[in-house]
Structures are given as C-alpha cells and as structure tokens.
Amino acid sequence: MNNPSAILFDLDGTLVESLGVLRQAYDDFLTSYGISPSDLEFQSLNGPPLKLIVQALKANHGLSETDEKLYLDYTKIVDKHYLSAHPVAGAQRILQTARINNCEIGIVTSNSRTRTQSWLAHCKLSDYVNFIVAGDDVARGKPHPEPYERALQKLPRKSEHCCAVEDSIQGVQSATGAGIYT
User: Are 57 and 44 in contact (CB under 8 A)?
Assistant: First the structure.
C-alpha cells in the first residue's frame, strides 16, 4: 500500500520488545503457583488479551483461585516488568516518518490502556500516537475483528486508506477480519 492515511500498530512485539518481559511475567506467575513454565504454552498464548491468557492458564493447570484474583496477580507481575521493555529497533523512526507524512497513528493492542499509555510516555513516544484501542476497550479481543473495527471508527478516513502492522497470527486475523490491509 502506497501512502496510507493511517497506520494501526500492534504494540507487543511490533513497537515494543516485550516478549522477554512477558515471558518473565508468565514464568513468575506459574512458578508462584508451583507450576513449571512451558515454551510451547507460552508461544500459544501470544496475542490474546491478558484475561483470556489467565483463563487458559487456569484451565490448563487447574488453578483454584477465582478468575479475578488470578487476573490481578498476573497484572501485577506484568506491570512490575513492563517498563523495562525497550522499543523495537526503528520504532521511533517509523512513527516520526508516519507523522511527517500526515498519517493518523493508532495503537491496537491486547494490552491494557494504562500499561500502554505508561510505556509510550516512558519511551517518549506518546506524542506520535493519535489514539489507542486497548484490550480493556473491547468485549472480544484479537483474533476477533472488534479491536480493529473500533480503530476504524476513530479514523476520519476509510479503511482502504489504512494499513495495520502486526506480529501475531491472532493480530493478523483481527485486522484482516476488519477489512484492513495488513
């Protein structure tokens, strides 16, 4: 796509090198319950919102705590590690270039709004972003198209002038399901 009027970026793995941070959170969470982490399980959980990840871990490992308690525990662990994640190489440059070319810039993430805003501010990238659609803004997260449909509602121009940048199968399914070039 040449000269898009908007670019919608995923956050984790796309703009932020968060895989190591999220892996550490996953490891810390499971070991706090006496469970050994698994590479295969961690890889299978790349993309969905944290609430769905926690529900999967509860089911996979027979955790007896409530969904709410498990979610709060996992969230605290992720928050503890997240600001140590660095932007991917070239993230600032691509955001600057998009801004110079008058592109609307949206972040469409399964991450929480608060964590996303904190990280963007910490890395001095907030000024490049026009809007955020976070995991806590939608009823159905990636791979459902709802996150990207929400993003399209925030854009002044049509989806055929927009593109998405994703790094997971779930994210690609979400964006393409909303009719966005990805």
Answer: no
> Is residue 148 within 8 Å of 8, Cβ to Cβ?
yes
pTM value is 0.87
Cα(133)–Cα(109) distance, integer angstroms: 6
Per-residue pLDDT tens digits for 61-95: 999 999 999 999 999 999 999 999 999 999 999 99
Identify whether the C-beta of residue 110 lies closer than 8 Å to the C-beta of residue 85: no
Q: What is the number of residues in the chain?
A: 182
| Structure confidence by residue, pLDDT tens digits, 113-165 | 999 999 999 999 999 999 999 998 999 988 999 999 999 999 977 667 899 99
| Residue of 172, 110, 154 lying closest to 6 (CA atoms) | 154
CA dist 61 → 27, 43, 56, 107, 150 (Å): 13, 16, 8, 32, 33
- Select from 58, 79, 51 the least CA-distant residue to 136: 51
Report the distance separating Cα 119 and Cα 156, nearest Å.
Answer: 26
